[in-house]
Write a structure and sequence with these properties.
Oligomer: homodimer
Structural class of chain A: alpha/beta
Helix content of chain A: 40-55%
Shape of chain A: globular
CATH class of the largest domain in chain A: Alpha Beta
Number of helices of chain A: 7
Distance between the termini of chain A: 70 Å
CATH topology of the largest domain in chain A: Dna Topoisomerase Vi A Subunit, Chain: A, domain 2
């Protein structure tokens, strides 16, 4: 027996979700159609609406349904601080955890010459124009501590230097509650080289 | 910052999928909108189509886009054998693994008086009518080996007896490749009580 083409197609479509393979997709199909048709209908609607309406903020490049996102539009935030992150989910993470009250700039990627991603592809021309205006006094580089993330941070810090804007990098070290014996060596060496006087 | 209402709604909608919680839903939202909009669009379409077009086969109650499903319609299958399973995914599992070539009947549940599920709710009236016709010579009870699955199997075997139809239950025991020391006691006692002469 082959599965109904419609079901097979749905199973295939579900596999675009991260972490969903053949078996989970099958489980989802049967769950949705047997037990939660309303949920499936909702999901279809929400997906279509999101794909249709969500674009990128013209100022900070995060996901937004409006030309200017709520964060960029919020005048209570510190207009002189700009935090550079790789993805919109980083914005969410920082916003829900840190007491940071400045603005954001989302690269939607990182410099990666091997993948053909140059400065313009991650919006660095836009960032450059923004720094040129002179409103930003400090940029906080919060790209991931990977080789490409570090290279991107370095590139942007050079750009900031050109415009006489202060550039800082978030601290990398032992995570809160982490135990030294279980921390990888890269993190440990970061923690040592980034040590502060107490 | 609150997340955009549209994104929040999508995140909520994704949680109807089995095994998807807050964090995975968030990851899915950003993955879909950042990296796979086409996949998201496809998924929305497939879901809507499946919800719209997939119903239940009038004969065997499995998920089907037609009134009579492909399995029930297949004249090459043994029309005298009927395998009773709980869900459409059981049909798929048996079909792709076993050499069974008879027909199926999908209960879409099991007898569960505590949840208010009686014989009519799982289509046993329909099954009764089918046994009455006299075409079926043997029913194979392949409900799950849970308390409710066993009770359902027992109920149906009594029904079969009334119509002079042979009822058999699939074997439960040590799975192929399983090691005795890791098998739970319930399975082991099933394996012993169901032993065969060699």
């Amino acid at each position: 027996m082959e599965l109904e083409p419609i079901l097979q197609q749905l199973m295939q479509a579900l596999r675009c979700l991260p972490g969903v393979g053949q078996k989970s997709a099958q489980r989802m199909v049967f769950h949705l159609l047997e037990r939660d048709r309303e949920g499936a209908f909702n999901l279809a609607q929400s997906l279509a609406e999101a794909v249709d309406k969500i674009g990128h903020c013209q100022t900070c490049q995060t996901l937004s349904s409006t030309d200017i996102c709520g964060l960029c539009d919020d005048q209570r935030r510190d207009q002189q601080l700009l935090c550079i992150v790789e993805t919109p989910s980083d914005v969410l993470a920082i916003n829900s955890a840190a007491s940071y009250r400045g603005l954001y700039f989302v690269l939607n990627g990182r410099l990666s010459p091997l993948d053909g991603l140059g400065p313009a592809d991650i919006g660095l021309d836009k960032l450059n124009a923004r720094l040129e205006k002179g409103l930003i006094k400090e940029i906080i580089l919060a790209t991931n501590p990977t080789v490409e993330g570090e290279a991107t941070a370095h590139y942007i810090s050079e750009m900031a230097k050109k415009h006489q804007v202060k550039a800082t990098r978030i601290a990398h070290g032992v995570p809160f509650g982490g135990e030294l014996e279980y921390i990888d060596s890269g993190t440990l060496s970061h923690a040592f080289s980034g040590r502060n006087e107490v």
